[in-house]
Amino acid sequence: MSNTTSHPTFSSIAQMRKALDSKQVSATELAQAALDRANATKHLNIFLDINPEATLAQAKEADQRIAEGKQHLLTGIPIAHKDVFVTRQWRTTAGSKMLESYISPFDATVVEHLKNAGTVNIGKLNCDEFAMGSGNENSAFGPCLNPWDTSAVPGGSSGGSAAAVAAGIVLASTGTDTGGSVRQPSAMCGVSGIKPTYGTVSRFGMIAYGSSLDQAGPIAGSARDLVELLDVISAFDERDATCIETCDGTPNRQGRVKQAYLDTLASQNGQGSQPLKGLRIGVPKEFFGPGLSADVASAIEAALQQYEALGAERVEISLPRTELSIPAYYVLAPAEASSNLSRYDGVRYGYRAKEYKGLEDMTSRSRSQAFGPEVQRRIMVGTYVLSQGYYDAYYLQAQRIRRLIANDFQAAFATQCDVIMGPVSPNVAKNIGDNRDDLTADWLADIFTLGVSMAGLPAMSIPCGFGGAHGNRPIGLQIIGNYFNEGKILAIADRFQQHTDWHTRKPEIK
Predict the structure, then answer these.
(1) Which residue among the candidates 6, 26, 82, 124 is catalytic per the annotation?
(2) Which of 44, 102, 399, 476 has its CB surrounded by the most CB atoms within 10 Å?
(3) Rounded CA gap, 268 and 485, in Å?
(4) Which residues are CB-neighbours of 24 under 8 A, at least 6 positions away?
(5) Which residues lie across from 216 on neighbouring strands?
(6) Positive or negative CA dihedral for 221, 225, 227, 230?
(7) Catalytic residue among 6, 134, 157, 222
(8) Catalytic residue among 11, 96, 181, 234
(9) Which pLDDT value is given to residue 314?
């Protein structure tokens, strides 16, 4: 494997931080290298908007902070944002023609937190339109390509976010996860990504898809780097009504995640060659049925054996309503989407049809012309299940199933296991264009991630192998924790990465 990256000597944020502080390299030089790398990989269609002037201005500010000794650990580190986080100096399109030219008058809270820490934004990243999709094929601006195999999807909806890290353009990026949209692209691009507990990261300024499910999360090369990003963006925000003030008695503020991570590592370090002794790993039998491909099953089994070698105990558990997560999610998420996307009517902002007769016709034509097929499909499904006569039969039933799914997870955590592990997706990344004639096939591939999202639990993906016909498509291991256990699962993932090299492998960009 080639180690082709824009920063060949920097494989981690810690290494880059050391080089910045010792003046071996400047933030401006790093930013320019990332911009050059983004330009050199244009064929992958990773970025939707780049503003070099704004990027280099942020880099210059970072260099000034470093010169004054006022730097944060992330000051000067190049990152990039999924194009559903609104930004003042870059267009925010949500991958849709509806917002093709929109520039926000304010920054999203996640963007604001990272900017305050001194990160340098390289640009906005490709994604499925309004985050609706599992392959980044639903972007109005064309699909993003997987850096490992350009005939494959990078996963979705945060495909550009995972591809930017895998391609070595940035060390970290932001994504959003509604039903698996951080974990799945991370798995398919061979990088690490985490979805935190719902409500721990502010949704203010994050364009909504499903409000009770959407959660921001970082993507990076390793669990260790994820700690630094997540620790900065996890904090209570009074501007977001869904953001929580305390996490099981601990204030929801910067420092919480990193302290929990360090405490977990410290407790492991005293156990010698078996640092994970006492850790019970729940392995749901429903995750290993006939729908799981042999290459994914083999990689997950090898990863579980590695954990056992480190002292962990494997426990078979049951999540009996796993299959019900698909129909329940695809009732709830479209229902919320139909409500959230009703604001795009061609009146206040966004796309407006050029020809129309009256207000109603203007709204109808604007939405029909600007929304892509998948978005229109989900709006129609959502409107249907919320309509009179069907609300009780579909929406309320789905909410009941959601509660039962959450109860299944809690029952497992209460008596059987400390964390849950399994595959992220039943298969490696599909080819671009596959499933075009089967509109719901991609929905079925979300079976292992949807239940976690509906329960609001923290979960992550880390690289654990390769599969596919040519053995060049990454596979991810999913690690699921109980509420507010982000620091714990990050430490458990880090321990695995200390003993394996899957996360260090880089694609050879063609």
Answers:
(1) 82
(2) 476
(3) 16
(4) none
(5) 176
(6) negative
(7) 157
(8) 181
(9) 98
